[in-house]
Structures are given as structure tokens and as C-alpha cells.
Specification:
CATH class: Mainly Beta
Largest sheet: 7 strands, antiparallel
Helix content: 10-25%
Strand content: over 45%
CATH architecture: Beta Barrel
Number of domains: 1
Number of strands: 9
Oligomer: single chain
Number of helices: 2
Order of helices and strands: HHEEEEEEEEE
CATH topology: Porin
Structural class: mainly beta
Distance between the termini: 16 Å
Shape: elongated
């Protein structure tokens, strides 16, 4: 299932990013496509790259659908806590792997993690004062999976000076 999810996200992201925006959004439609890329880097430490695509479209006058696709990649190295000794050091990890570093280097452990996420939301306007929203999201990493379901009821007062909201969600991870 994990490979199918990754393939689906990769294919959907590729297809969405490959569509020329001028053709993807009709100026008279109620569809918006937003893309963003987060890039963060610390020299000799951590790098984060996270492209995201968000699509919102009106299915009809009373229903709004939103879809968000995200792909995070976090790579880098983190200090192990040992101090430089001035002489080469051989370090054995808890898994038994062995590495040797120069004496003037800070001992570091490299890492990489990838997360892929998809979320769907549907909002239905029953009348001008009552909305019901539902959502589903799924996020997977190499060693972690999270799934969320949500449902929210929103009611405005007649004069729209107050909004009452009741909602709930269920998450498994």
C-alpha cells in the first residue's frame, strides 16, 4: 500500500505541476490552484525542501472541494554529543555501524526522512447560515503513518454577529 500511495502522490503532483496555470484556471470559474515550496537550510546541518499544491474548486453553488498534496524531504546531519578530541575518532552506533572522523571535526550522524501527505476537504452550505465541513488526510513517512477524519458544523446567528461551531476529529498514527 505504501508504494501505491507514493506513486499516486508522485503522479498527481507531477500532473498538477505540469499543467500550465493559464489553462488550469479559468478566470470565470471558482477554482484556485496555489503552489508553494518551502526551502530551509543550515550550513553543514539540516536541509528541508517541501513543495505543496493546494486546489480549491466549487463543485456547485453549495459545495466546495479542497485537495492538498505535500512532499517533505529533510536531510542533514546532527551532532552526536561527542566532543572533538584532536585525534581521529572511531564511532560505533547502536546498530553496529562504524565510522571514523578527523580529530578536529564534530562527530555528526547523518539522516534523511521523506513525508508525503494528501488531504481532502468538502464543505456544504445548507443555507446562508449553516455549513458542514468534512475532511480526510493521510501522511506517511518511512517509519510513521497518520490518518485523520474530521467533521465540523458551523452556524451563524441571523445578524451574523456570532458563529457557533461544533466539530470533532479522529486520528490514528
Amino acid at each position: 500500500m505504501k508504494n501505491n500511495f507514493k506513486k499516486s502522490i508522485s503522479l498527481a503532483t507531477g500532473l498538477l505541476l505540469g499543467v500550465p496555470i493559464a489553462n488550469a484556471v479559468d478566470s470565470e470559474s471558482d477554482t484556485s490552484i496555489n503552489t508553494s515550496i518551502l526551502y530551509y537550510s543550515e550550513e553543514d546541518r539540516v536541509t528541508v525542501i517541501a513543495p505543496q499544491v493546494n486546489i480549491k474548486t466549487s463543485i456547485n453553488e453549495d459545495n466546495l472541494l479542497s485537495v492538498t498534496l505535500l512532499h517533505d524531504t529533510v536531510t542533514g546531519s546532527s551532532p552526536t554529543g561527542e566532543v572533538p578530541t584532536g585525534i581521529p575518532q572511531t564511532i560505533t552506533s547502536s546498530s553496529g555501524s562504524v565510522s571514523t572522523i578527523a580529530g578536529d571535526e564534530k562527530p555528526r550522524k547523518s539522516f534523511e526522512d521523506v513525508r508525503q501527505s494528501v488531504s481532502f476537504g468538502l464543505t456544504h452550505n445548507y443555507d446562508r447560515l449553516l455549513k458542514i465541513s468534512s475532511g480526510f488526510s493521510n501522511s506517511e513517512e518511512q517509519d510513521y503513518k497518520s490518518t485523520n477524519y474530521s467533521l465540523n458544523f458551523t452556524r451563524d446567528t441571523e445578524d451574523r454577529s456570532r458563529t457557533w461551531s461544533l466539530g470533532g476529529s479522529y486520528t490514528t498514527d
